[in-house]
Write a structure and sequence with these properties.
The structure is a single chain. The chain has 259 residues and is α/β, with parallel strands linked by helices. The strands form three sheets. An eight-stranded mixed beta sheet has the order 1-2-4-3-7-12-10-11, sandwiched between helices. A two-stranded antiparallel ribbon has the order 5-6. Strand 1 and strand 2 form a beta hairpin. The radius of gyration is 17 Å and the shape is globular. The chain is built from five helices and twelve strands. The structure holds zinc ion.
Length: 259
């Protein structure tokens, strides 16, 4: 690396590499499991607070690695998705989920309209606004969201290792799916383990589809990104794979790897 990366944090949103020059804008909505003290851990104890229910394990490290390699801005939420899931619109029932897999979230049961609005104002709206501003400040922006998922869900093992997700605009996803085997030996699938029918493409719809920007959502199985070395290797893999796809799609200055 030729440059030291910086991160600026305002409230519950952080922008990593705020001066990044890449057209790629990296997004990590489920980066943190932090729950502000006032929420009393939402009534949860023990493992739930550290589990995939609260955040996407390893996703922030991969997103940062990608951001550093591409000299791209990264916008990350600093709060657990159990408080507010920044990849959901305020109208979604699971924006403040009272159930996550087998875990009941006591602090989210029976929320009043005012309580919901407080969380929208405190967590979702600043995230949405910051992301919109950073995208507006980027010429020909490309939106790339980084997520991770648990290897076992409701007792079922998942074989997919990297999911390439899209909504109605599949240009970037198609380009990446077409070259996946050149960049990774993992099992890469389209819209798996989630797809638009699960409501997971909110950020893409809100910030990319509405303006015609290229976009993709990447879901990495979290057992593949458990330690710093795995996270760094995954970031490198995605950086090269994504850069190649953008060259194929003729996005200028996409390849600005700093290594
Ligand atoms: Zn996620």
């Amino acid at each position: 690396m030729t440059q030291v990366s910086t991160t600026s944090t305002q409230g519950h949103v952080s922008v990593h590499n705020p001066t990044g020059q890449s057209p790629v804008v990296v997004v990590c909505e489920h980066a943190s499991n932090f729950i502000p003290t006032a929420y009393n851990d939402l009534g949860l104890v023990g493992d739930a607070l550290a589990s995939h229910a609260a955040w996407d394990l390893g996703a922030l490290a991969v997103a940062k690695g990608l951001s550093d390699r591409l000299n791209a801005k990264l916008i990350a939420s600093g709060t657990s998705r159990l408080v507010y899931d920044c990849n959901r619109p305020p109208s979604a029932p699971d924006a403040m989920p009272h159930q996550s897999e087998a875990i009941t979230v006591p602090g989210n049961v029976g929320l009043t309209a005012a309580q919901r609005q407080n969380r929208i104002d405190e967590f979702y709206e600043p995230f949405r606004a910051t992301l919109a501003e950073e995208i507006a400040a980027t010429s020909t922006p490309v939106i790339v969201t980084i997520h991770s998922f648990t290897p076992t869900y409701h007792g079922q093992k998942r074989t997919v290792e990297i999911g390439v997700l899209h909504d109605t605009d599949s240009r970037l996803a198609d380009a990446m799916l077409g070259t996946a085997s050149q960049y990774t030996e993992t099992l890469v699938l389209r819209n798996d383990p989630y797809g638009p029918e699960h409501g997971v493409t909110h950020t893409l719809k809100e910030h990319a589809l509405a303006n015609g920007h290229l976009n993709v959502m990447l879901e990495v199985r979290n057992d593949l990104i458990q330690n710093a070395q795995q996270q760094d290797e995954m970031a490198g893999c995605i950086a090269n794979w994504l850069s190649d796809a953008l060259v194929r799609l003729k996005v200028e200055s996409a390849v600005t790897c700093r290594e």
